[in-house]
Design brief:
heterodimer, A: 255 residues, 6-stranded mixed β-sheet, 12 strands, B: 342 residues, mainly alpha, 0% strand
Chain lengths: 255, 342
């Protein structure tokens, strides 16, 4: 589905990503972890085309994304950014409807198909009750779910999420990721989600990629990658991985 | 009546009333009966006007009508471009003069005023042409200064606009101080009191304003998407750089055309979009046409006041827009019930 081949990205003279390669198949949730400044956000921005690549290629279903226009790319890749500084006057409904931008003509005429897609996206993310309310009145969690609804309305097979749980309390953190897991498997979406919370990654990711200093340190199943030695090296503090029961989920804690 | 049509009906009714006022009111009042007679007479018969209404006919067709249309177009252009810039820069303080149109036009006009042009048709056009050229040149300089490779970062554009505007304004002031007797004329122009009468100004600015506003009205949806920031707009599929360039070019051309014959009229470009936003919401697909209509109405009303308050003298309309406009806007602001309108 999404194939990243040896991409490098620079900010001026500083190399932010160095020959990163990964593959994201449909129906798979790939958790992207790493310390601050490792390049997680840079990788996401490079993937969705906001940052130019110094080197390497990105393929979607075998096609080079550089050949795609902004609109074509938006039909294939949707981004759920962090819920920061959203324009407060927009209603929730208007916001989700903007997810249909890749399908709407210049004048902004919305078809019934667009409205249906938006409505369905809101129902699946349990945000339909917020439809007439303005973004400025919503809580951080509600705003984040709204951005997820907007990305779903885009109808793209690839979903990129940049630390979507940052401003959320425990309830919303888990419910958001539960929803993403359900949607990924129902719609066979390819999901790349950058996360800080290792326990959420352990619980919800099908595969894990570890980014340190712009380089991919490890890529594999959570059980293989989320080990105490590797994580302690990555985060520079001693960590323990404690299995709660045989065959059950693990908890990652400072040792 | 469908609720989405209501704002348009209201604003068009106000525009019609403003147009009517502008045509009939002035130092010579044209009674409605005579107005109807003249208009229908011209529309349906080719017979010359009877001697009794000859003066009225001249005033109406040579002075009032072209002036009304010019003022309406100027108000529409300023409000429309102001709305475009507020949407593009995502800044409630943006007005159509943000990136240098006004200061450039002023400099061009004042430079031209320093030269004694012959009193011919071409000579009379010298100042508006100089203003237009000055405006476009300044925007071009600002644009090039702000450019980084292939993109024009918003912050760069605003900063370059402020810097160049200050420079141009300083030069203009210097020229005015050093001139001998042109100061009052320059001041009046800079305050929005320019008045070249007749149909020539109307025909000169018509293509710029009609096409410019037409394009800007079509950018409503794009401006909506841009409210989420350029990065999210790009991710949603909007060709952001292309859109920004188009908006800047058309809004600058439209504003330059508007100020070259009317001088620098302040307040309309800044406040009319906010007024419309307060009353009818910030969806740019609706905001653009409504701001254009309301801008025309408001400037027409201001122009009527400018003609009447100290008749037969005329106050520069820019003074009226600021003096009357500010309290009016504050009153509307207090009436607004919505907390989040921006």
């Amino acid at each position: 589905m999404l194939k990243v081949e040896n991409i490098s990205v620079s900010y001026g003279a500083r190399l932010a990503l160095n020959k990163v390669s990964l593959e994201l198949p449909a129906g798979c949730i790939l958790g992207l972890i790493g310390p601050n400044g490792a390049g997680k956000t840079t990788l996401l921005r490079a993937l969705c085309g906001v940052l130019p690549l110094q080197d390497g290629t990105i393929w979607i279903d075998g096609g080079d994304i550089r050949r795609l226009s902004a609109m074509e790319r938006a039909r294939l890749m949707a981004v759920v950014p962090q819920a920061n500084h959203l324009p407060p006057a927009f209603t929730a409904w208007e916001t989700v409807l903007l997810g249909r931008t890749p399908y709407i003509n210049w004048l902004g005429q919305v078809s019934s198909r667009d409205e249906e897609a938006a409505r369905q996206a809101m129902e699946r993310t349990h945000t339909i009750d917020l439809a007439e309310r303005r973004i400025g009145e919503l809580s951080g969690g509600e705003q984040q779910r709204l951005l997820l609804a907007r990305a779903l309305a885009q109808g793209a097979p690839i979903l990129l999420m940049d630390e979507p749980t940052t401003h959320l309390d425990l309830q919303y953190q888990y419910s958001l990721l539960e929803q993403i897991k359900k949607l990924a498997h129902e719609d066979q979406l390819a999901v790349l989600v950058a996360l800080h919370d290792l326990n959420l990654v352990e619980r919800y990711a099908d595969r894990v990629a570890v980014l340190v200093g712009g380089e991919l340190l490890a890529l594999g199943k959570p059980a293989e990658v989320l080990t105490a030695p590797l994580l302690s090296r990555v985060y520079c503090i001693p960590l323990s991985v404690i299995q709660t029961r045989p065959g059950g989920p693990s908890i990652i804690l400072p040792a | 009546m469908k609720s989405s049509a209501r704002p348009f009906v209201y604003s068009l009714v106000i525009l019609a009333a403003a147009l009517l006022l502008s045509i009939t009111v002035g130092s010579v009042f044209i009674p409605p009966a005579i107005l109807l007679n003249l208009v229908f007479g011209h529309l349906f018969t080719a017979a010359p006007d009877p001697a009794s209404t000859q003066t009225f006919a001249t005033i109406l067709f040579e002075l009032r009508l072209p002036r009304t249309i010019l003022v309406a177009m100027t108000g529409a252009a300023l409000a429309g471009s102001g709305a475009s810039y507020q949407g593009l820069f995502r800044n409630p303080l943006a007005d159509p003069y943000l990136i240098g149109v006004a200061s450039g036009a002023g400099l061009g006009a004042v430079i031209a005023m320093g030269i004694h042009w012959p009193y011919t048709e071409a000579g009379l056009l010298a100042i508006p042409l100089a203003a237009f050229a000055g405006a476009l040149l300044t925007v071009f300089v600002v644009y090039e200064l702000a450019r980084v490779g292939n993109t024009i970062p918003t912050t760069n554009l605003i900063l370059a606009g402020v810097a160049i505007s200050s420079f141009a304004t300083a030069l203009t002031s210097y020229l005015m101080i050093n001139s001998t007797g042109e100061v009052r004329r320059a001041l009046v122009w800079l305050l929005g009191g320019a008045s070249m009468s007749g149909w020539q100004p109307v025909l000169a600015v018509l293509p710029y304003i009609v096409i410019g506003l037409g394009i800007q009205m079509a950018m409503g949806h794009a401006l909506n998407v841009l409210q989420f920031g350029e990065e999210q707009a790009q991710q949603l599929g909007l060709p952001v750089e292309w859109v920004r360039r188009l908006v800047i070019v058309t809004a600058s051309l439209t504003t330059a055309a508007a100020v070259s014959f009317s001088g620098i009229i302040g307040f309309i470009g800044l406040i009319v979009p906010h007024l419309v936003r307060l009353v009818w919401g910030g969806d740019y697909r609706r905001l653009m046409p409504l701001a254009i209509i309301s801008g025309a109405s408001l400037l027409l009303l201001a122009d009527v006041l400018a003609r009447v308050v100290m008749a037969p003298e005329e106050i520069p309309v820019g003074i009226i827009t600021a003096l009357a406009g500010a309290p009016f806007f504050l009153w509307v602001l207090r009436q607004a019930k919505q907390q989040n309108y921006w």
